[in-house]
From TrEMBL:
<feature type="signal peptide">
    <location>
        <begin position="1"/>
        <end position="29"/>
    </location>
</feature>
<keyword id="KW-0378">Hydrolase</keyword>
<keyword id="KW-0442">Lipid degradation</keyword>
<dbReference type="Pfam" id="PF03403">
    <property type="entry name" value="PAF-AH_p_II"/>
</dbReference>
<dbReference type="InterPro" id="IPR029058">
    <property type="entry name" value="AB_hydrolase_fold"/>
</dbReference>
<dbReference type="InterPro" id="IPR006311">
    <property type="entry name" value="TAT_signal"/>
</dbReference>
<dbReference type="GO" id="GO:0016787">
    <property type="term" value="F:hydrolase activity"/>
</dbReference>
<feature type="region of interest" description="Disordered">
    <location>
        <begin position="26"/>
        <end position="52"/>
    </location>
</feature>
<protein>
    <submittedName>
        <fullName>Hydrolase</fullName>
    </submittedName>
</protein>
<keyword id="KW-0443">Lipid metabolism</keyword>
<keyword id="KW-0732">Signal</keyword>
Amino acid sequence: MPTRRAALLSAVAAATTLLPGITARTASAAPRTSGPLKATLPPPSGPHPVGTVSLRLVDRTRTDPWVPARAYRELMVSVRYPARSVEGHPAAPQMLPGEAAAFAALNSFTGVPADAVDWSATRTHAHEGAPIDRCESPRPVICYSPGAGDPRSLGTTLCDDLASRGHVVVMLDHTYDAVAVQFPDGRVEKTVLPAEYDKAYPDEDRITALLRKTLAVRVADARFLLDALPGALPGELRGALDMDRVGMFGQSAGGFTALQAMHDDRRIAAAADLDGVLAYVQNDSTPGNLSTVAADGLDRPFLLMGMDGNDLDAVPSWDALWRNSRGWHRGLTLRGAEHATYTDAEALIPQIAHRLGLPRKTVVANIGTIPPRHAIGAERACLAAFFDRWLRGRDDDGLLDGTSDRYPEMRPFPRRHA
C-alpha cells in the first residue's frame, strides 16, 4: 500500500498539507451552474423517521485544553432518534452558517473548489424537535466521533441511518479540533490544530506529543458526554435512552477515539473504528508508538472497517489490537474505498464533481472507485448489524463475517488473523 499520512496527523497538518489541494481549481472543470452548488444526502434506510435536538454541554471540571484562558470545556452534540412523527418539524441543516463558512475555507476534500458549494444549504433527513417514538423504550445509545478537523455533521449519512433503525445516536463535536463549532448564541469557535501543528513541525517528538494530546482531549470529551447526557436531555427525551446499552463509533481519529474510549471507560459496551489508525504515528504503516488500546487489547466487542488495502498486515496498530484482544472482534476491508468513503463525502463528492465537471480522478482521490450506493449500503448494513448484535442481541446473519452476497466489496480480514 502506498505510504500515506495517518488521518489524525493529516487533519492536524491541514494548514500546510491539505489547504493547497482544497483551494486549487481544476482546469478541466466545466462551467459552473449559477450560484454555489446545493448538494443532498441520501435518505435513511430504516423504518423510522428521524428526529433531532442539539445540546450545548459544559464541563466545568476542565479548563479547556486548547484555550487555557477558558475556564471550562464547552461542547456541542446532536441527538438523533427514531421519531413518532415529523409532520410540522423542519429538516435540520447539515451545517449551520458559521460552520459551513469555515468548512468551505478549510476541509479535507481534494481538488474541490472552496467557494463552489453552499455547505449550509444541505438538509439532513432528521427533523428538529420531532417527538420520539417510545414504542421501544429505553433505546440503546450510540455515540459518534468525527475525524480530526471534521465537524460532527460529516457523519450524518451513517448516524441518521442508525437512528432510523431504532437507535439513539449522539454526534459529538470536539471544540477547537473540528474546523468550526457554532454555539446557540451564534459564536463560532474554529480549529486550532493547524496552528498547533505549525508550532510542532518539524520536531517529531513534538508532533507525537500533539497527536497524543489531540486523542486524549477527544477521549475526555467522550467520557464527559456519557456523564452529562442523561441530565442534559430535554423533557421529551428523558427516560428514552438506555445508558446501560452504549456503543460508539467514528471515522479516522473518531474511530481511534471510539476504541480508546471503550478501553478507558467500561460504560461503552461495543465500538467500531472506520479506518482509524490506533498509534501516534505519521503514517498508518509505521510501527511503534502504540496507544494503550492497541497495546492492551479489548475484552469487549469491536469492529474494524478499513479502506482498500487497510488490514492487519498494512496497519501495525490494528494487528497489535487484534493479537492482544480477548473479546469478540471482526475486521472488514471495503474494496475500492478511500479514507473519506466512511464519511458524507461518499454521497456529496459525486454530486459536486458531476455538477462542476470535475475529472474522475478528483472523485477517485476522495472516495475511491467503489460505486457510492454500494459503499453506503455496505457501511450502513455492517454498522447496524454490529450494534444490533451487541446492543440488542440480534443475529447478523453472517454479515459481519464477510459472507453476504449483497455486499461483495466488503471482504473479511485474512483468515490467518481470525
